[in-house]
Fold this sequence. Notes:
This protein is mostly beta strands. The chain has helices at 11-20, 24-28, 135-140, 145-148, 197-205, and strands spanning 6-7, 54-60, 65-66, 69-70, 77-83, 87-89, 94-95, 103-104, 106-115, 121-131, 133-134, 153-155, 159-160, 168-176, 179-188, 216-226, 239-244, 250-256. It is globular, with a radius of gyration of 17 Å.
Amino acid sequence: MTVPVKITGSYELALGYADSGLTWDRYLDGHDGPQVRPRAGRSVPFLPEDPSRAAVYSFGYTHRAVNGAAVQKGRLDFYYKGTGDLLCTDGERLASPVPLAGGGIEAEYCAVYCVDKEGEPAYLGYTLANDFSDAGLRHARRNLANLSKLQPTAVAAEVVLADLPESSAVSASISRGGTVVWQRDGALGRREMLYAPRVLERLLLHRRGLFAAGTVVYMLLGSCISSHKDGVELRDGDVVTLQEGHSGLNLTTPFSC
């Protein structure tokens, strides 16, 4: 099996690649300097220095099963999650900006894009993500479902420069006071999805005039694991850990509210 190429990656690297028209192999040839890693203090991969030039979106009900329960095709939903200001990464605190009705986590892949100078999205790669939301609000007041998703999103510190794998084992856990209080295993990847990633890409990104050149888009591809569906709510001081097998991506974030 080919070892996945993972990088942290600066915004400048994303811009250059998007406008180059090259494959990653050719573009990275000779790029072993600071562009391959983000500048100090900007640890989210490919995040612009001005985080408002990044946007986060989330699709839901995209996988064949969530927590082992089958999902019926045709329930696809979509949310805006905020600008890059609401992104955090491995080791950083996941903090809700408002009181919660019931905070929940979801384990999923995130596809990352940079809009080139012609306004076309260039796919950069994928990473592991925690689609955190106020699931309690969403289920109690359906009319405010969109507000429930305006919460921080955590992404792993590296992006894999490849298409999504066919399938990969993934696990999620919540620890409280050093003890695991909830844990779930699942599977992410193209074979596990009801909708191909390129279908979701076309639905969102191929809209002329919607995204300015240089915008970085973090597109969450839907979950296979949900803490809320197991009746588990996050508490202040909890630690959330996600692990993915195919690419070795990991994501650990302490939670505060």
